[in-house]
Amino acid sequence: MAGLEHAKLAQNFEFLTFMTLKSKILIPVFAFILCFLALQSCKNDIDINANWKEIFIIYGALNTNDTVQYVRVEKAYLDPKTGALQVAQIADSLQIDSAIVTLSSWAGVDTMKRIFYVPKEPGIFANDKNPLYKTNKKIDSSKSYTIQVHNPKTGTKATASTNIVWPAVISSPVRNSNSKFSCQTEFINITFVPKNNSFAYDIKLTVYYDEFLKTDTFTKISKVIHWNMVTNQPVQAGVETRVLIPRLAFLQFLSSSIAADITLNHRLKKVDMTWYGGSQTIIDYISVNQPSIGIIQKTAEYTNITGGYGIFGSRCIQAVKNVRIDPVSVILIANHVETVKLNIIP
To answer: Fewest CB atoms within 10 A around its CB: which of 107, 118, 126, 326?
Structure first.
């Protein structure tokens, strides 16, 4: 159970870190400091720094299919005497030790517990302390939820609300672990009916296989590869969504992900398919923060936090795991021109 809890924590921290890094919230801060330095170089004595104000940064995505919910809470910073990148390495500049974080619906209020997630990769921001706020409260998809962050020492508050994404009804290509994953036809048919508060979906395929030398079939290495089958697919709640994925795209994914070596054999074992449904706030946030490819590089800022910045929304993750690949598909993969070089064996 400890391993499962750690895996869930890692997945949620990765998502919340992704949301943080995509945010443009610190860009105005960096610009502010650059303006300050420019004015100083011109020997302008005007103090452009406003009075100090505490600003909360909140990132969270409630998942009705998870038993644990995590929210990331930090604060914005500005130091007129120190560079922003240098300040980012100081944990106390980012964190609020006295914050009280509550998650509430009409059914009641739950105070989230502060925990520290240590295994974070080094980067721009301090990684010696990585606080998240956690609750084991079961999320009810029929309710809306409000998060409030309150610092009793300063009186600062920030709030946000979200409706919950309901689980979709999945029809194909796999319904459950007893299904068989097939690529016999020209297209892999993905069909599902999204439910309340769903606005877009990502669907990912995970393939598990063994790799071993032709001369040593007893020593094998188990490997895993991941494929983004569907990305940001718009949906309408209650309306069946159908996406046709060319079989050729799947075969090319295998060809580019598995080592082609005449000394190696490979055996495909199973696949997992995972559906990620996002609420409108999550989808809007991701869309606004897509990299710009035009001449104008400036992007808009998006937040649904009142009294702060960030994003608080909902997602629904549904995984169908340990699905076997049907034998006919394995033979097809082994002999197809795109994948014959992989030496796939039954």
So the answer is: 118
